[in-house]
């Protein structure tokens, strides 16, 4: 039986968080600069591992905790603060709140440096607030939370979001200022392409038809798309 208070509709029965390395984050992917994962230019950390099994998951390859490589909080902190021209960092995955203590420590340090912090989560805000021991350190160190699982049937042209059930929450005065400055509920959805070596990464939430057409067109020209949806 699932725990409705935790909004665990798609959790496997008796799922439990794994034992994670102390002071380590399991990172599946990292992007230095993104313009589609929150306000301004932001670094994006995709973590590995998620206990939920949402039917429309946009990153099933990141569900396993074994899909990531261990990075220390210090390593990630140094990489992020050394990236020029960013205003903050956004966490995606996977499920960032399965590594809440580690990402919470990282977020606290980044906020002290002057960067803003944002995170996607398949859990609803009420579920995160209901479990402060498990989720509190990261939740309390966020400026912006985008909650709710991605639902293919509710896909739409939403800025920073893939489906209409997801909600943007400003959790701090800084988050409120940033969100008010850039967030427009009626704005057109954005997709970003970035080049890394000989690979092109597409991030954002393109609809399935657009996504398939882009991937096919690029593949026909010998370009491999490394997908990175939020």
Automatic annotation (TrEMBL):
Stored SUPFAM superfamilies: Radical SAM enzymes (SSF102114)
GO molecular function, a single term: 4 iron, 4 sulfur cluster binding
Keyword S-adenosyl-L-methionine: yes
UniProt keywords, alphabetically: 4Fe-4S, Iron, Iron-sulfur, Lyase, Metal-binding, Oxidoreductase, Pyruvate, S-adenosyl-L-methionine
Gene3D superfamilies in the record: Aldolase class I
Known EC number: 1.97.1.4
Signal peptide: none
One Pfam family matching this protein: Fer4_12
Cofactor dependency: [4Fe-4S] cluster
Keyword Cell inner membrane: no
The protein's name in its UniProt record: Pyruvate formate-lyase 1-activating enzyme
Species the sequence originates in: Posidoniimonas polymericola
């Amino acid at each position: 039986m699932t725990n409705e208070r935790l909004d665990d509709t798609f959790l496997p029965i008796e799922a439990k968080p794994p034992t994670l390395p102390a002071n380590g984050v399991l990172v599946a992917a990292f992007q230095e600069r993104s313009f589609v994962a929150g306000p301004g230019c932001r670094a994006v950390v995709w973590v590995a591992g998620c206990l939920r099994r949402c039917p429309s998951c946009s990153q099933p390859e990141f569900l396993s905790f074994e899909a990531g490589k261990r990075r220390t909080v210090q390593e990630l902190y140094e990489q992020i603060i050394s990236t020029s021209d960013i205003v903050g960092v956004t966490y995606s995955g996977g499920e960032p709140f399965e590594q809440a203590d580690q990402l919470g420590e990282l977020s606290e340090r980044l906020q002290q440096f002057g960067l803003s912090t944002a995170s996607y989560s398949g859990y609803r805000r009420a579920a995160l607030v209901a479990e402060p021991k498990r989720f509190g350190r990261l939740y309390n160190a966020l400026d912006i939370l985008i909650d709710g699982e991605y639902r293919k049937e509710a896909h739409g042209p939403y800025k920073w979001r893939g489906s209409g059930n997801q909600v943007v929450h400003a959790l701090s005065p800084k988050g409120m200022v940033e969100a008010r400055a850039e967030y427009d509920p009626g704005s057109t959805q954005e997709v970003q392409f970035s080049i890394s070596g000989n690979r092109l990464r597409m991030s954002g939430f393109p609809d399935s038809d657009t996504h398939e057409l882009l991937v096919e067109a690029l593949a026909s020209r010998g370009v491999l798309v490394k997908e990175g949806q939020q």
